[in-house]
Amino acid sequence: MKKKLIAMALAASMVASLSACGSKPAEAPAETEAKTETEAKAETEAKEETEAKAEESAESSGDVKSVEGLTVAFVPKLTGNAFFESANNGAQKYAEKWGFTVDYQGSSNASVADQVQVINNAIASGVDGICISSVDATGLDSALTDATSSGVTVGTWDSDVSDTARSLMVSQGTPEILGQMLVDMGADSLTKRGKDPEKDTIKYCWHYSQATVADQNSWQVAGEAYIKENFPNWENVAPDNYYSEQDAEKAVSIGASILEAHSDIDLIICNDSTALPGQCKAAQNKGLTKNDVTITGFASPMSIKDYCEADVIEQWGLWDCGVQGAMGCYLTAYLAAGNTVKVGDKINIPEIGEVEVMPNDCLVEGVETAPENNGVVLMPERLIFNKDNVADYDF
Questions:
Q1: In the chain, fewer beta carbons within 10 Å around the N or the C end?
Q2: What are the angstrom distances between the C-alpha of 276 and each of 14, 129, 154?
Q3: Helix 214-230 to helix 175-192 angle, to the nearest 10 degrees?
Q4: Contact assessment for residue 179 and residue 225, using Cβ atoms and an 8 Å cutoff
Q5: Residues 238-287: tens digit of each pLDDT
């Protein structure tokens, strides 16, 4: 390609030189000749650019199989939750541009049995791929393996299954990144209310969905390791953690029980999008503000906005779940279309950007990665929300 362009450039240069050395017609003014020479050069450059783009396009179209016309079942842990509904909105918006169908299928109950039924329904409906956020680290493995055997491509997002039961996982970050983020948000909020996280004895606990949810549990484990290394004076008042099973009402009642059992608690970390609003509601019901107890965690900005404006919470975080849902659906469709990837490969997701396939052990230490169509893709960034910026987001 480069050789072709160089040759054409040299040819254009020689033509220009010969024109400059030749005799000038008497009737042609110098200004007219200069304009003609400029136009000729522009035409040559335009032709070179057109040929280069055509060649590049031909090479690209030969490498990447189109996702147009495919159908991907997009499965949340449960429907009716702000995080998952926002993720679906993003997936639908992008899929319309990409030319394939996202079929949002789920249950209002966050249970293995319900998700297995959704998986079986998706297979029966003839989808090309399933992209799922799992309520259990291993409970869906058998159903998803059956889906793969039926010719359905399986991907995960948000919360993983066994690496042998899916192809690519779109993760919001490594356990270390997210565990540290949760703890640092808590430490910063404690500082803002006059505590010294490095010297004070901080009483804290974790409140999230359940220990079998792979992502949330891994963040808690990594967060605990980060606390022991950086804040050795902190005291976990509930080493077995509090779980509200992604039930909105239970999240409030569990949140209330934490505040009742530990009236002097300093920090509650809610690494779950149902637990965090529930914990905030419980604190508000008790008349507590961010100056009385520090609450932080992960949830969509709109689900916490009212509590933030009421001074119940200082800050919390997440990532663009709409982009994450879209990425999961696209990569599932990408493999369903017949494309093949391996660790280290770069994939260009239209409208979003280039991502890299990473090994599975970036999420779980010691886990192997298959030679093809297996691995992890990380979200490009994470977000922290507070009173100053929460109105800038609409999910």
A1: N
A2: 71, 32, 30
A3: 60
A4: yes
A5: 999 999 999 999 999 999 999 999 999 999 999 999 999 999 999 999 99
Domain 71-172+321-380 identical in fold to domain 175-318: yes
Burial (CB count within 10 angstroms: exposed 0-12, middle 13-18, buried 19+), residue 338: exposed
Domain ranges of the chain: 71-172+321-380, 175-318
Q: Is 168 helix (H, G, I), strand (E, B) or coil?
A: strand
- pLDDT at position 8: 36
Write out the H or E segment, with its range, that includes residue 169.
Answer: strand 168-171
What lies within 8 Å, CB to CB, of 290 at 6+ separation is 189, 193, 311, 312, 313, 314
At 189, list the tokens.
Answer: 């909020």
Which amino acid appears at position 82 of this protein? A
| Residues in a beta bridge with 153 | 129
| Helical spans, DSSP H, in the chain | 2-21, 30-63, 82-98, 112-125, 141-149, 175-192, 214-230, 248-261, 275-285, 301-309, 321-336
Q: Which of 324, 340, 350 minimizes the C-alpha distance to 99?
A: 350
Q: At what angle do helices 82-98 and 321-336 cross, to 10 degrees?
A: 50
Q: Does residue 214 contact residue 277 with C-beta atoms inside 8 Å?
A: no
> Where residue 34 falls among pLDDT bands split at 50, 70, 90?
very low
Euclidean distance between CA atoms 34 and 149, whole angstroms: 69
Amino acid found at 96: E
Per-residue model confidence (pLDDT) at position 5: 35
Q: Could you tell me the CATH superfamily of domain 175-318?
A: Response regulator (3.40.50.2300)
CATH architecture of 71-172+321-380: 3-Layer(aba) Sandwich (3.40)
Two structure tokens written together for 224? 């605990």
pLDDT at residue 15 greater than cutoff 50: no
Best CA proximity match to 327, nearest among 158, 80, 183: 158
Instruction: Give the torsion sign (CA, 386, 391, 392, 395).
Output: positive
Taking alpha carbons only, the member of 136, 128, 71, 137 closest to residue 104 is 71
- Whether the pTM exceeds 0.85: the reply is no
Evaluate the CA torsion angle 94, 98, 104, 110 in order and state its sign: negative
Average pLDDT over residues 26-36: 39
Query: pLDDT digits over 299-329, tens only?
Result: 999 999 999 999 999 999 999 999 999 999 9
